[in-house]
């Protein structure tokens, strides 16, 4: 008998209606961390490929104790949001194919199966349609697509079985106070050249919690992760980091972020969008927007010389977060200027611009409508 190998497809999606959907009068009644009602699930085997996708009530997974994901960290995920416009009429995703393509890059790094991007997007859209009632006007839900190895075999081998899942949860808007960052401890590193810092693997995050917990204990928001003896600045917690300094030679502002070519930072979708917005608006004014390696010493020197303009972190969860304090490895606190209250001009501009796109205040190709969501 010939076995047909199947690529991921949204056709034939089986929907199991929830017997007891969550009831609420106001979105504020929902706990900020609770999952929504449904889970989308597709299984994969190395012999037959992707199976029939199903959308069913959210609940625990059934995994063999020997599953690859539990022993060898064969798992990757994405962080996304589904937004509802302030008038309540539109539900959109922000550059979703960028997230799906990045998920495929992460799958490749962890030897997990690939997703056909348009099929994955169609499944994501259907999931959002089912859960759109959880999105209040002017708000969002947090989406977590993920892939994990599920083959029940103890032994370091490429997964022969896997699952593609999509879940969502409520999440509060993180419009908190500006960030205070503490440089990473000299004996801990988040990622290294030749490693997997560029992929959104589960293994990238658990080992950072020790340093993060210590930073929070000492009154900081996140860890500013440094690399190497020279202290190359990479990421802030799980977010991409930007610093703005006045160039010593030209006196013009230079906006800097760690380059993807190092292989140690995540190619953030928000990061990419921020770079495009900044270059489109400010390059003609002589502002340089550079992806380049820079060090904590460069920031400290710029601060001492009055050339530090601002700093901010960007990502899906924290969105655009201005930075007010950076503690160096030597324990010196750098005070980061804020030209307009609790933000710098650049961070304010990109936050306002991206907000208008995400919440459909303006028409933009980055905003992807979910047609049937109500």
TrEMBL record:
Answer whether the UniProt record assigns the keyword Transferase to this protein: yes
Keyword Metal-binding assigned to the entry: answer is: no
Annotated keywords? Amino-acid biosynthesis, Aminotransferase, Branched-chain amino acid biosynthesis, Pyridoxal phosphate, Transferase
The protein's GO terms of the molecular function aspect are: L-isoleucine-2-oxoglutarate transaminase activity; L-leucine-2-oxoglutarate transaminase activity; L-valine-2-oxoglutarate transaminase activity
Q: Which residues carry this modification: N6-(pyridoxal phosphate)lysine?
A: 200
Pfam families per UniProt: Aminotran_4
Catalyzed chemical reaction(s)? L-isoleucine + 2-oxoglutarate = (S)-3-methyl-2-oxopentanoate + L-glutamate; L-leucine + 2-oxoglutarate = 4-methyl-2-oxopentanoate + L-glutamate; L-valine + 2-oxoglutarate = 3-methyl-2-oxobutanoate + L-glutamate
Cofactor field: pyridoxal 5'-phosphate
According to its UniProt record, the EC number is 2.6.1.42
Name of the top EC class for this enzyme = transferase
What does the entry give for GO biological process? L-leucine biosynthetic process; L-valine biosynthetic process
Which family does the entry's similarity section mention?
Answer: Belongs to the class-IV pyridoxal-phosphate-dependent aminotransferase family.
- What is the name of this protein? Branched-chain-amino-acid aminotransferase
């Amino acid at each position: 008998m010939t076995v047909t190998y199947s690529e991921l497809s949204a056709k034939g999606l089986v929907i199991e209606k929830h017997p007891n959907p969550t009831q609420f009068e106001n979105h504020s009644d929902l706990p900020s961390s609770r999952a929504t009602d449904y889970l989308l699930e597709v299984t994969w085997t190395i012999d037959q490929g992707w199976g029939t996708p199903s959308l069913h009530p959210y609940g625990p997974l059934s995994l063999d104790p020997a599953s690859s994901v539990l022993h060898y960290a064969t798992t990757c995920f994405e962080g996304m949001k589904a937004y509802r416009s302030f008038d309540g009429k539109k539900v959109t995703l922000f550059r979703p194919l960028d997230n799906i393509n990045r998920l495929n890059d992460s799958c490749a790094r962890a030897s997990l199966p690939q997703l056909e991007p348009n099929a994955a997007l169609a499944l994501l859209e259907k999931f959002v349609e089912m859960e759109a009632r959880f999105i209040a006007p002017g708000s969002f839900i947090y989406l977590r697509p993920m892939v994990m190895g599920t083959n029940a075999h103890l032994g370091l081998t490429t997964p022969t079985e896997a699952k593609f899942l999509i879940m969502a949860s409520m999440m509060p808007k993180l419009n908190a106070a500006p960030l205070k960052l503490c440089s990473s401890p000299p004996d801990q590193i988040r990622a290294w050249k030749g490693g997997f810092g560029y992929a959104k693997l589960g293994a990238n995050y658990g080992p950072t919690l020790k340093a993060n917990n210590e930073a929070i204990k000492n009154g900081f928001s996140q860890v500013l992760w440094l690399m190497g003896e020279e202290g190359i600045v990479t990421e802030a917690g799980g977010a991409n980091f930007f610093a703005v300094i006045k160039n010593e030679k030209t006196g013009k502002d230079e906006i800097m972020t760690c380059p993807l070519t190092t292989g140690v930072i995540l190619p953030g979708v928000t990061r990419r969008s921020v770079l495009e917005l900044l270059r489109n608006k400010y390059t003609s004014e002589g502002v340089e927007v550079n992806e380049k390696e820079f060090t904590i010493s460069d920031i400290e020197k710029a601060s001492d010389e009055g050339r530090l303009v601002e700093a901010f972190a960007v990502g899906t969860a924290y969105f655009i977060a201005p930075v007010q304090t950076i503690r160096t490895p030597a324990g010196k606190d750098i005070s980061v200027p804020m030209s307009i209250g609790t933000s710098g001009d650049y961070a304010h501009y990109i936050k306002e611009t991206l907000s208008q796109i995400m919440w459909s205040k303006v028409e933009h190709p980055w905003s992807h409508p979910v047609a049937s969501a109500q």
